[in-house]
Amino acid sequence: MAGMSGYPIIILKEGAKRDVGREAQHKNITAARAVAEAVRTTLGPRGMDKMLVDSNGDVVVTNDGATVLWELDIEHPVAKMIVEVARAQDDEVGDGTTTAVVLAGELLKKAEELLDKGVHPTTIVQGYKTAEAKASEILESMSVEVTRDNREVLRKIAMTAMTGKGIEAMKEKLADIVVDAALAIEDNGKVDVENRVKIVKITGGSLADTELVHGIVLELERLNPEMPRRVENARIALLDATLELKKLGTDAKITISEVEGLRNFKEGEKKVLEAQVEALAKAGANVVLCQKGIGVAASHFLAKHNMLAARRVKDEDMKMLALATGARIIGDPMQASSQDLGHARVVEDRKIKKDKHMIFIEGCRDPKAVTIVVHGGSEVFLDEMERALNDALMVVGDVLSYRKIVPGGGAPEVEVAERMREYAATLSGREQLAVKAFADAVEVIPRTLAENAGLDPIDAIVALRAKHGEGHKAYGVNVLNGGTADMLDGGVVEPLKVKLQAVKSAAEVATMILRVDDVIAAKREELKPKPGQSPH
Ligand code: ADP
């Protein structure tokens, strides 16, 4: 670069790379589209799976676009932005990640066509913003209200979210489990799946054994075989205290010189433990679940009182146990009272397989946290099931919170495209071009659904446009038999929230990428191998 005086002025460190203007835009758009392309074939119930192998050789087989993106080791900054969008979509609403990413890719593709025609990026950004607002309006207007009592619709929502995950035969049962779980934990319209649904995976057995436990399952064993294996009508103490003798290591605070003194001290400590266990028993507890340690002596006293106990219960399990059983976590066992105790119909230590026990705390009355125990042949399969169940729980939660649904199968996208093109015609100037580009881009969803189902995408779009032109708003791609079908009748439904969020996320990231016309990248530090390590 030459300065005014003719001397070059260098403002970047040596080795930095810089792309400016159209070149930068083109590279960024290409990177974003490559990411979208990577997940496009997973979209919809007929989408294909991807097998991903990481550098450790661990395998993930998934149909979930979001998972594909997490697992890809992505370098390009713009590609990373797209992955972030998927993550945000997943966190916000739990589904629609592939849709958001595919749509972002298509919005950028259409934008590039406009850039080539000389439309300024700012005009495109403005037009896309207008279009996004219009899309939300159209989606709202075609949505249908649902109430909590509309169980059938909630089941359909769960099933639509789980399609394509290779569980067709079990979909009905799993949908029931998901709906019951979401209804159970709903609290004032809020469905906190992350903190209130525990998913426990058991390899072996079949998916058909999967069950909803109205309580919590701990991956622990009871402390001592002398304790009862099963307690009915359980009154549960949740303890956040240690029931152990103080250890007398070299750094012990108490120094005792005589052997007698040591014995006395230990006896005294035991007495304290005994009193603590007695206090729990007096409060009425017959099950003690402790977040910290329980020593041999305390375990013996607990068994003597015929209590079932477990130690080192995880922090998140303690919180869920409190929500499920209605217990209050006790800090000082001496202060325990019957009001602190939680309830469950049964607490049972079950042997799951060789060397593996679990404690089931079940039959809780009105539990505000529940567990889904999933069975399956392999860990890879169980992980995919966990993702499917999570997505389904989230979407049912979305509907319980926002109470509106739209038909799936590309119907909302076709409707948005049709109405948006009409709207574009009312605009003037170049903004019209951008709004129309947005409308055309949205059709990538039904087109891809058709393509992934082995249908002719052009025929599908033409047929769908005709139906929507006649006012049939719920028509989408019939992925099973070809052609088009009413998605509401067919039970293919999605939360309005998921669609709104997908369009919003896609538009946001596309416009963010379009606004960049200068990419300055610092020189990357070479990774130096540690001494003694080969560079490869
Ligand atoms: P995402 O991550 O975007 O949710 P999916 O792979 O789950 O991606 O695909 C969701 C799309 O598949 C939605 O547009 C949804 O309406 C559609 N879909 C799901 N089930 C069906 C079905 N039975 N028939 C037609 N479309 C369906």
TrEMBL record:
One GO cellular component term noted in the UniProt record for this chain: protein-containing complex
InterPro entries in UniProt: Chaperone_TCP-1 (IPR017998), Chaperonin_TCP-1_CS (IPR002194), Cpn60/GroEL/TCP-1 (IPR002423), GroEL-like_apical_dom_sf (IPR027409), GROEL-like_equatorial_sf (IPR027413), TCP-1-like_intermed_sf (IPR027410), TCP-1_chaperonin (IPR053374), thermosome_alpha (IPR054827)
MF terms in GO: ATP binding; ATP hydrolysis activity; ATP-dependent protein folding chaperone; unfolded protein binding
Top-rank taxon, per record: Archaea
The entry's keywords: ATP-binding, Chaperone, Nucleotide-binding
Family according to the record: Belongs to the TCP-1 chaperonin family.
Annotated NCBIfam families: thermosome_alpha, thermosome_arch, thermosome_beta
Protein name per its UniProtKB record: Thermosome subunit
Species: Methanothrix thermoacetophila (strain DSM 6194 / JCM 14653 / NBRC 101360 / PT)
Lineage of the organism: Archaea, Methanobacteriati, Methanobacteriota, Stenosarchaea group, Methanomicrobia
